[in-house]
Design brief:
CATH architecture: 3-Layer(aba) Sandwich
Shape: globular
CATH topology: Rossmann fold
Structural class: alpha/beta
Strand order of the largest sheet: 3-2-1-4-5-8-7-6
Radius of gyration: 16 Å
Order of helices and strands: HEHEHEHEHEEEE
Distance between the termini: 47 Å
């Protein structure tokens, strides 16, 4: 695995050697960040179910000013910390790691931290947590009003178009995986 772009472009990262961790491939990450462009530049990023940290580290490389990683699996957490130590310079960025369950930490993050401009949701596929996490985020102040959520999900899994105050605005299929893009529902109340 390697960082596909930005100031750490080409940097090799450690990948999992154990069962259960499924990092986002280089090709998929590159496609994702080409879609996102500069939407999160100088923004805050939350990497849920971070695993080895490839999505959040890619965001750091491409201009995020702060990234928070959440990973409870001890093996994934060890890889994440090793990969963060490989970064040559993180002086101008804020990096946090929460070694806890995503569903338990989101209410605390909502209370204690500023909202995030970009949130990645990439749980283990067998856990089937996408709906629960999106529903919880929709009730909390975790996402900035103009923020975006990216969900990595098996392409055959179906989520409703709307969950709480969030709606899917785009979906891209790459082989057996889909990237879904979620935002707050635009209710048209801005005078249109």
């Amino acid at each position: 695995m390697r960082i596909t772009g930005g100031k750490y472009g080409g940097l090799k990262l450690l990948g999992p050697t154990h069962e259960g961790l499924r990092p986002t491939t280089d090709m998929l990450r590159e496609a994702l960040f080409n879609i996102l462009g500069a939407t999160f530049l100088n923004g805050r990023v939350l990497d849920l179910f971070a695993g080895a940290g490839t999505l959040g580290i890619e965001a750091l490389s491409r201009g995020a000013r702060a990234v928070t990683f959440v990973e409870k699996d001890p093996k994934g957490l060890r890889l994440l910390k090793q990969n963060l130590r490989r970064l040559p310079d993180t002086n101008n960025t804020e990096v946090r790691v929460y070694p806890v369950d995503v569903l338990r930490i989101l209410p605390k993050i909502s209370r204690d931290e500023a909202p995030y401009d970009l949130i990645f949701i990439d749980p283990p596929f067998h856990a089937d947590l996408w709906f629960r996490v999106l529903e919880l985020i929709s009730r909390l102040s975790v996402l900035a009003t103009t923020g975006q959520i990216v969900v990595e999900i098996p392409r055959r899994s179906l989520l409703p178009e709307r969950i709480g105050c969030l709606q899917r605005v785009d979906k891209r299929v790459y082989g057996e995986v889909s990237l879904e893009f979620w935002e707050y529902i635009d209710d048209g109340a801005d005078g249109e």
